[in-house]
Amino acid sequence: MEEKKIITLDLTDCKYLGELHERIRVAFDFPEWYGANLDAFWDYLSRESDVNEVIIKGVKTMSADLIDYMNKLYIIFDRNVIKWKKYSEIYEDIKPFSYRIDS
Fold first, then answer.
1. How is 56-100 classified by DSSP, letter by letter?
2. pLDDT tens, position by position, 18-35
3. What are the residues whose beta carbons fall under 8 Å from the beta carbon of 14, sequence distance 6 or more?
4. How far apart are CA 54 and CA 103, in angstroms?
5. Long-range contacts of 88-93 (CB under 8 A, 24+ apart)
6. Quick one: CA dihedral 70, 71, 73, 77, positive or negative?
7. pTM: predicted TM-score of the whole model, two decimal places
8. What's the distance, CA 90 to chain centroid?
9. Torsion-angle region of 13 (φ positive above 0: left; ψ -120 to 50: alpha; else: beta)
C-alpha cells in the first residue's frame, strides 16, 4: 500500500493572484501549462493530483484582496474531500483527501 502523500502550500506574504496560482502549481507539481484559475485548479486537484493531504500555511499573512479568493479555494478542497471520501469507503487502495489550515 502506498504511503500517504502530504504537501505544504505555503502562502506566506502572497500578494497577487498570479503568485498564488504559481505557488499552487509548484506545491502540487502541476505542469507549466496549468491554467492558473479555479476551474483548472479543480480539474488538476480532482483528476491529476495524487496528493492525500494539504497543509496550508501563511493565510493570515496574505493580501486582504486574496482572502475572498481563498474561500473559493476552500470550497474546492471541501468538494474534493467529499469526492475521495466516497471512493475510499468503496475501494481499500484509495486514501481519503484532507486539508488543514495552519496559522
1. EE-GGGS-GGGHHHHHHHHHHHHHHHHHHHHHHHH-TT-PPPEEE
2. 999 999 999 999 999 999
3. 20, 23, 58, 61, 62, 63, 66
4. 14
5. 93/1, 93/2
6. positive
7. 0.88
8. 23
9. left
